[in-house]
Amino acid sequence: MLKEKDGVIARAIDELDRISQDAMIREAYDKREMEIMSYNTNMGMARDEGHAEGHEAGRLEEKIEMAKEMLADGMSLEVVSKYTKFPIELIETLTSGIQDA
Asked: How many Å apart are CA 65 and CA 16, to the nearest integer?
């Protein structure tokens, strides 16, 4: 049997048997396992949210750069607004940055 071949596994099985016999220890063990699973789930969700936020910020930066290039090429505020979906007021603020450059 595997328990007889590997001392580490044998010790783990013995520890599991010992823990399983004590209700309080078993309850604490189960609670800890649930906390670990909850932590891992929360960390995964936070990572996914951070990734989505970073992706969105990158897309916004890309659209801003595109709008600046369109303005530098002489396109009207209305055309830039149409294709970027930015309000004209925002595009006007971008024009001041282009004129300063």
From this structure: 60
78 three-class SS: helix
List Cα–Cα distances, 7 to 11, 14, 15, 17, 57, in angstroms. Answer: 6, 10, 12, 15, 53
d(CA 94, CA 46): 33
The structure's pTM equals 0.51
Q: Are 12 and 6 in contact (CB under 8 A)?
A: no
pLDDT digits (tens, 9 = 90+) for 40-79: 999 999 999 998 998 899 999 999 999 999 999 999 999 9
Looking at residue 21, the DSSP 8-state letter turns out to be H
Does residue 35 register a pLDDT over 90?
A: yes
